[in-house]
Amino acid sequence: MAKNAVAEEFETADANQAVRTCIGCRKKADRLQLVRVVRSTNSSGELEALVDVLRRMPGRGAWLHPHPDCWKLAIKRRAIGRALPGVTAISEVESFAQNSLEQGEPT
Q1: What is the pLDDT of residues 88-99, one digit of tens each?
Q2: What DSSP element (H or E) covers 38?
């Protein structure tokens, strides 16, 4: 039964688009419907999470729906640190969730 549900989920996605899992709500979606968070190194050598709206930055990435609930859930569950091992600084991600998403700015 679960195998059929997985097959149906992939049939609904466009065959040409990559499917990613939101680290907040854990639901699958087309890559173009999600916002990428990438692991990067700041000037002091600390690993940090940066929001990659254009989806072009190099490095390991994680994906989130552009909804404040998914971002709050990912921050609360510490999913960013698990998806991007070694990341300790998530201040930019928190700021993005607070300022851009809650005010309804398009991503």
Answers
A1: 889 999 999 888
A2: strand 35-41
